[in-house]
Design a protein that fits this description.
Elements: H1 2-32, H2 37-44, E1 47-52, E2 55-60, H3 61-86, H4 93-117, H5 133-142, H6 149-172, H7 183-198, H8 204-221, H9 227-235, H10 244-260, H11 270-286, H12 289-313, H13 320-325, H14 327-354, H15 366-375, H16 380-390, H17 394-429
Antiparallel strand pairs: 1-2
Helix pairs in contact: 1-5, 1-12, 3-6, 3-9, 3-12, 4-6, 4-14, 5-6, 7-8, 8-9, 10-11, 14-15, 14-17, 15-17, 16-17
């Protein structure tokens, strides 16, 4: 029941964050096309810098959000990936095979469609590969009980693998000219982080302090600094300080002490305070460091980082002359998300199942797989994020954003329609 409850809480948070993201995006588009438009763009171009000893970093406010705050978002993504690999739905070949095939298809086919339409300008291939998990789950939650938990779990697992693919693409493709002088610094800091893990350090503070230096040095190398978040996540320990049974035994002991010392006074006494302190100490010890950090980051990421990212990056002047001037790039992104995603997700899993490489999970129909394929075409903020890495020309970025928004909107409508239709078919079969 605990696992189910945690999954339901996760879904609820993601869906609510999807609503907040949508509102932030719409606000950004409105402001960008209003009389405040110039002030909006000027705000994000303000330069801010920090100095730590001999290290000096100066970036625009937008870059601090995209490189700095988004590193925390990718830290959370990395934590989710590690959790799923170690104890979740990616922990065994049997459980992981279907969403892995789906995710690979959902990345490969959109990229190929983009490249086919832009053979001389292939750098934007990563844009239609991305799936916005918050928006996607938000759409499913709007449908309520008409979408089964199995379908939601499939989307979540698919999105985790999709995120891993996005991390690899960002790290390997969207980088500046590398400054290898800082490679030794990165290596030393990362080794220190892993030494903490191997020596059983469960406190998160030293990991996070070293993580700051890891981010700085990776930024100076020229690799996109958000990768520091993922690397740090993989080094966060997943084991607790004490075992669950030991925690339960000790907690029962101190709960009994607390109950024994209940008196008629309206305040708790010293013995009860002592019992509560021991329970609190045990609570800290039994907590999984990885899950504790993931839990603490999730709210901040969902309701601060991503809405701020959306508000700072989604603002686009709705000038369709940008689209006509960059029509093939826009079409590559548009068809990659709208056609490539469902074709890849459904096609790869269907033919893999026909070849008996994988099995269709229980309580999921092929109609629902196709529907999730379209829902996976909601690129939104993640596609916008990669757009800013792929292109520097503001007119291209503006055109691509329009293409991303249109594709995501149409994909949502088709995906919802197919899910509702599939639900009716399932009801009739019952």
């Amino acid at each position: 029941m605990t696992v189910v409850h945690s999954f339901q809480n996760y879904i609820s948070r993601e869906s609510l964050s999807g609503v907040v993201l949508f509102l932030s995006t719409m606000l950004a588009v409105w402001v960008a096309n209003s009389s405040l438009g110039q002030a909006y763009y000027d705000l994000w171009r303000v330069a801010l810098g920090i100095n730590i000893g001999e290290l000096s970093i100066s970036m625009t406010l937008t870059d601090w959000i995209n490189d700095g705050l988004m590193a925390l978002f990718f830290l959370m993504v990395g934590l989710e990936i590690k959790r799923e690999i170690v104890v979740g739905d990616l922990s065994s070949v049997k459980k992981a095979s279907f969403p892995i095939f789906a995710a690979i298809g959902g990345m490969v086919v959109p990229a190929l469609i983009y490249i086919a339409l832009n053979p001389n300008n292939p750098l934007g291939f990563g844009i239609p590969m991305a799936t916005d998990i918050a928006f996607s789950l938000g759409v499913l939650m709007l449908l309520g009980k008409r979408v089964s938990s199995s379908v939601k779990l499939f989307l979540v697992t698919l999105a985790v693998v999709d995120d891993l693919g996005a991390v690899i693409v960002v790290a390997s493709v969207y980088t500046d000219e590398l400054q290898y002088a800082y490679l030794m610094h990165v290596t030393i800091v990362y080794l220190l982080i892993w030494m903490l893990n191997l020596n059983g350090v469960k406190s998160l503070i030293p990991y996070l302090i070293l993580g700051v230096f890891l981010w700085i040095y990776i930024h100076n190398i020229g690799v996109h600094a958000t990768i520091a978040g993922v690397l740090l996540a993989f080094a966060i320990p997943i084991k607790s300080k004490i075992k669950e049974k030991e925690f339960v035994k000790k907690t029962k002991k101190f709960l009994a002490k607390f109950e024994t010392n209940i008196d008629k006074k309206p305040i708790i006494n010293d013995d009860q305070i002592d019992a509560l302190e021991h329970i609190s100490y045990g609570y800290d010890k039994v907590q999984n460091p990885l899950l504790r950090l993931e839990h603490n980051l999730h709210g901040f990421s969902a309701f601060v980082i991503m809405p701020l990212f959306a508000f700072s990056n989604a603002g686009v002047v709705l000038d369709f002359s940008y689209v006509s001037a960059n029509i093939m790039i826009v079409l590559g992104v548009f068809f990659g998300l709208l056609i490539g995603k469902p074709l890849g997700i459904f096609g790869f899993t269907y033919y893999a199942a026909k070849l008996k490489l994988i099995k269709l999970p229980k309580h999921i129909s092929w109609n629902e797989v196709l529907a999730i394929g379209f829902i996976g075409g909601i690129g939104f903020t993640m596609s916008v994020f990669i757009t800013h890495l792929a292109f520097l020309d503001e007119s291209i970025i503006a055109a691509v954003k329009i293409g991303v928004f249109l594709a995501s909107f149409i994909a949502t409508i088709i995906g919802v329609y197919l899910l509702l239709k599939s639900n009716k078919l399932n009801d009739k079969s019952v």
